[in-house]
Hints:
4 strands, 2 helices, 24% helix, alpha+beta
Amino acid sequence: MKSLETKHDYSNFTWGTVVAIHTLGEFDIVEYYNDNRLLTSFKPYRNGNAYPCSYGNLEEAIVGAIATKYDGGNTKSDTYFLRAIQHPTTKNA
């Protein structure tokens, strides 16, 4: 399990049960289980502020965090980038 120590407080995280927090510079990506523990998702934060979506894996969350930082909350550039590199999760997209 990754470290749950971070400079930001995620004790009030409401999307599910926090499994790990992955820190990359100004980004924290919270890995969590949904309430019935059937799905693991990743929710990005920048400087402690939540981004408006969650992702299915850590790679997507990293790309999404960077795309949102530069292109805003309604960005599609993360999807286009993942398609361009033929990321496995976008095979049928």
